[in-house]
Amino acid sequence: MISSSEYGSHSWELLVTVDHQHEEVQKEFLLRVTGDLHIGGVMLKLVEQIKISQDWSDYALWWEQKKCWLLKTHWTLDKCGVQADAKLFFTTQHKMLRLRLPNMKTVRLKVSFSSMVFKAVSDICKILNIRRSEELSLLKQSEDILKKKKKKDKNSKEPVTEDILNLCNSPVSSGLSGSPGFYSKTMTPVYDPISGTPASSTITWFSDSPLTEQNCSILAFSHPNCSPETLAEMYQPRTLADKAKLNAGWLDSSRSLMEQGILEDDQLLLRFKYYTFFDLNPKYDAVRINQIYEQARWAILIEEIDCTEEEMLIFAALQYHVSKLSLSSEAQDFTCESEVDEVEAALSNLEVTLEGGNASNILVGPFGSQNCFHCVKCIDSDEPTWFLIFLQRFITKCIVLKLFLIESAQGEPIEKLNLKGCEVVPDVNVAAKKFGIKLLIPVADGMNEVYLRCDNENQYARWMAACVLASKGKTMADSSYHPEVHKILSFLKMKNWTMSPQAVSDPESIDMKPECFISLRYTKKYKSKQLAARILEAHQNVSQMTLVEAKLRFIQAWQSLPEFGLSYYIVRFKGSKKDDVLGVSYNRLIRIDIATGDPITTWRFSNMKQWNVNWEIRQVAIEFDQNVSIAFTCLSADCKIIHEYIGGYIFLSTRSKDQNETLDEDLFHKLTGGQE
């Protein structure tokens, strides 16, 4: 019954459904409220009416019709727009979620369904001991991929059983303050170099963490490879349109899980979204390195990224080596790696940096002169021509490629090309003694292509390293030049293998299944014995590597592929009558012909002035230097995903090691959030 005083007031009844586990207590409650009652007052009145003694601190109000949380408890109902027809749910903010990790293991843990995805991923990574959480995000698989998987599972004779690692007792995922050990600014924990778990002297810092030594081993070690039958059943993109489907389901980092239709105990994929792996350190990043390795490995196996036959064999050899070490007892020997004192390492890096920044050495190149010069064959027309080429740095800090005809190296060059912002693509076949470098140099109407052909491995390594640094606006005097040369030479050495007689007779190699390390395209092309022999040949050059070295070398080889880091989307450019594919990378956008797969135009982020989104017509507009403007609508996904990619990569480019792993979350949301 309503009293006369209540009847004459401006009060009204509000229906709230409570999500609790007490079957004997009703779940729907009618509250008499007024528009000036704040959200906190509504929750207090509701709890008093429920009359159940329990901890309600994790509960909040969810507005079903508007798909939003009412988290600002000081706001009134009128300010929130809540009226009598609203249906509110009083439910927990932290709920169970299943996450499929890059290594195909599934973990089950509590995640905040009310926090923005960016913050939720940060909390997840703290639980899993993964640094640099800003590189990861959550991906919801598209309906087409799920339908194909369900169809294959239905045709399978054996039921699919999934081994789930349960981390539901995590203090972080429960909404409580977790152990500060992972990210403590005053106490830096020491980790075992292989497993990534805290060393015995600091293990007490992690006593409340669900990531025990056994669980950490599951995340930090690669486990036996899947069977060829399992690999054959996985979704494998055949075309650019198929690859575009893989990237359509990224969640909006500026909205919560609940706002995006994610329900309790749903399964999402935790993946590295941004391909800029900052500050990889084997001492602290065992889990992170392994998960990057696993994501790279599966990208190779299901042919999400293309590679040559020679490269595929190198990847297979590294996988085989990692698999052997992961199963052997040697991988458990934590004393095999000597730890470098952090202070000495920092002083050493400082010394190298200071030497590299010396004014007298600023133009010293790999050939011992003030400028980098050498004779290479430059092909930019139908006829190859020998040029004497200079790489010279000017006051403007741009690296210029000067081309002289070999007969007339004096006087003015016939052409000058600014290499800052260019794309450097390797074109190497060690067996055929082919060492080429393709330079895609941005100009106003697209890209100029210049091809450099080197005589041998050493010349190629020096020029490749010089061009890579030049594209970043750095000279060969930079401290990273010589490590880059060494990395390239090491990679070339892996490709140049010779057959060892004892390799085939190795008893451990008899049971090797090459189908576990090679994509289906090549397993159909060769017999199993042929593949096994060729993998063992390639394995000779990597057999002395440690487990972490092999994983890092695999990641480096993956990063050297021309298509590395490209996320594809089907778009329609303004003024065009046909669809194209847009490739989004960490430093550029590429327009690709959807029929042939050939790149049409490339635009560098370094030349971008501004970008914006017309949310009404879902159109992305970008303005570059030299009065170049483009606009497009995204057909295979929401345009917000591309907008977030661009802003996210720009945000990640601002990171530096002196930030002590603290991120400007507000800046990220300003660059990626949009104004819908």
UniProtKB/TrEMBL annotation:
Which one Pfam family would you cite for this protein? FERM_M
Q: Which UniProt keywords apply?
A: Cell adhesion
Q: Which GO terms describe its biological process?
A: cell-matrix adhesion; integrin-mediated signaling pathway
InterPro entries registered for this protein in UniProt: Band_41_domain, FERM_2, FERM_central, FERM_CS, Kindlin/fermitin, Kindlin_2_N, PH-like_dom_sf
| Residue ranges annotated for the Band 4.1 domain, each copy included | 91-569
Domain of life, source organism: Eukaryota
Which GO-annotated molecular functions does the record name?
integrin binding
- Which SMART domains does the entry mention? B41
Q: Which GO terms describe its cellular component?
A: focal adhesion
CDD domains per the record? FERM_C_fermitin (cd13205), FERM_F0_KIND1 (cd17180), FERM_F1_KIND1 (cd17183)
Give the similarity note.
Answer: Belongs to the kindlin family.
Q: Which PANTHER family match?
A: FERMITIN 2-RELATED, FERMITIN FAMILY HOMOLOG 1
Tell me the protein's name: Fermitin family member 1
Q: Which organism is it from?
A: Buteo japonicus
